[in-house]
Every structure is written in C-alpha cells, then in structure tokens.
Amino acid sequence: MPHPFRFGVQLAALPADAWVQRLRHIEELGYSSVFWPDHFTDQWEPVAALAAAAAVTERISVGSLVYDVDYRHPVVLAKASATIHLLSGGRHEFGLGAGWMESDYVEAGMPFERPGIRIERLDEALQIIRAMWTQERTRFEGRHYTIRDVARAAELPDGSRPRILVGGGGPKLLALAGRHADIVGINPRMDRGRVTRKTARDCAPERIRQKVAWVREAASAAGRDPDALELSSLTFVVALTDQPSGIREELARQNRMSVDDVAGCPLFLTGSGAEIRDRLRAQREETGISYVVIQGRDPELLERFAADVVTPLAGT
C-alpha cells in the first residue's frame, strides 16, 4: 500500500504582527506540516520558530528542513529537538542535513569541507541524537564527535521520539537516509555549494527513479523495510493554471531542460488542479513520493493549492 498523501509548507519568516494567525490558517487549510530551513540568510531562526509554531497550533507537524549539522552540535540539537517534541505533543519532524550552501559557511567564517566529511559528520550526529532521545546516558567515540556520558535529552514518553527526516541528492547521502530516516527527501544534488542551472536537471524523472532506488537499496541492506519509509519532495515553483505551456517553456529555458522533463519534475508543479492531482498520483505510483512540500511565501497561492490539491488528495 502506498503512503497517504501529505502536504507541507516551507516558511522562512512571517509578518511579526500576524504570525500566529498565519500559522493557524495554514493548519485550518489542511496542510500536514510547516517547515523552517536553516540558513544565515534573511529568515527566522528555526529552533525558536518551530517552538513558537508548536505552541500556537494543535494538529500540524512542525519540522526543520533541515538543520545543518555543522551549525549545531548534536548534543545541543538533541535537547532542542526533544523539547520541541514535548512542547508540540509529539508533532516534531526532525530534519537534519550535511549542509550545502557555501555562502552560509563563508559569511559565518566556518570551513566548508568536502561533501564526504560533512556526510560522515551527519552520520555520527544522527547516532548521537537518536541515542540521547532513548538512553539515560550516551557515550560515543567517532572521528568527528566524542561524547562522554551525556544525560538523556529529555524524558520523552515511551515509544515517542521525533520522526527523522534526511534529504539528499547523491548516492552517499541518500544511502545514509535509507539507513537512518523515517522520511526521506528526494532532492537535487547540491555539491557545487549553490543552486545552478544544472540543479533542476538532476530531478528529471529518470534521475528521481535512480535516487529512490539508492534509498531503497540502502534500507534493505540495513535490514529495514523500504516500503515503510515516507518519501518527500520540496517544490520550488507552483503555478496553478489551465494554460501551463508558457511557464513550462520558460522553466525549461532557465534550467536547460525539456518541456516534458519540466512537466514531470517534482521541483515544479504546473497546470490545473486536476492535472497536478493526476501527476502526483502517477508520481506516487512510479516513485513512492507521497509527501509534497511547497513554498509558503504567497498566502493566496497556499489557499488555492489547498482547495485544488490538498483537500482532494490529503490522506488518500
């Protein structure tokens, strides 16, 4: 059985005088989650934002998309994420990544090490964080971290912990996700440290199939059930229109893709509500992707997308 459809909203900031109303309205519209990224650009800090979001909502999940392991020591992050999980009544989706945006590192004066090192660090951090959620004391000796008998992050209810989300675009990071994650984000590769004209092409339909295969193979090799993993995608562009040819042609030109690949790329959702619904059903059948996260900059678009796509599909 495929996973039921879920829909999330990625936010960066909200109006200071209306953030509570905006979050509650997103919840009322039927979205499953709100996410915050983790960059040093003009955005709200995610730990504070997610704790606040948890406090003013009742049902919607609050998640990081994703914390950067290089900005936050795993002991500190284990405690922060466990606290958000408690404050939200078990609604925290804990996303952690290896870091990708080089400008963050440059601006903060941190070394931007090669991907393999950052992925190793992520692997160790996830082991430490999971242990701190479940064990009274954690000890760990690795290449990047040494943890000496640190106390449990928080007294979580038995069997309750944040769901782990790991996204990636290359085989090493997606294999790590297959071993550790409950939710896997199927993303483009970001090994250049920035978005380029080649980024979207790495999410053409045949590339998505390959990425999902890497996840499933790694999960099976680790003794996990690949079908139990929830697969997600982050959409860059949503255009609800009965005449999508123009925007597809422009996206194809900007990203050096074919129009057909733009129409089938999960980074772009273009077309009428009915066409997008049909495409998401077909994508889930072919790849298993059932959790779709869209950008939350435009409140009017969030309402239209909720009416045309979320309400008919969510939970089915």
Topology:
Layout: E1 6-10, H1 19-28, E2 33-36, H2 46-56, E3 61-64, E4 67-68, H3 74-87, E5 92-97, H4 102-108, H5 115-134, E6 137-141, E7 146-151, E8 163-168, H6 171-180, E9 183-186, H7 205-221, E10 230-234, E11 237-240, H8 245-255, H9 259-264, E12 268-271, H10 273-287, E13 289-295, H11 299-313
Parallel strand pairs: 1-2, 1-13, 2-3, 3-5, 4-5, 5-8, 8-9, 9-10, 10-13, 11-12
Antiparallel strand pairs: 6-7
Helix pairs in contact: 2-3, 3-5, 5-6, 6-7, 10-11
Describe the overall structure:
It is globular, with a radius of gyration of 19 Å. The chain has an 8-stranded parallel β-barrel, surrounded by 8 helices. Strands 6-7 form a two-stranded antiparallel ribbon. A two-stranded parallel sheet has the order 11-12. Helix 2 (46-56) links the parallel strand 2 and strand 3 (61-64). It is α/β, with parallel strands linked by helices and 316 residues long. Helices cover 43% and strands 20% of the residues. The chain contains 11 helices and 13 strands. The model has no long low-confidence stretch (mean pLDDT 96). It has a single domain (6-313), classed as Alpha-Beta Barrel (TIM Barrel), CATH 3.20.20.30. The chain has helices at 19-28, 46-56, 74-87, 102-108, 115-134, 171-180, 205-221, 245-255, 259-264, 273-287, 299-313; strands at 6-10, 33-36, 61-64, 67-68, 92-97, 137-141, 146-151, 163-168, 183-186, 230-234, 237-240, 268-271, 289-295.
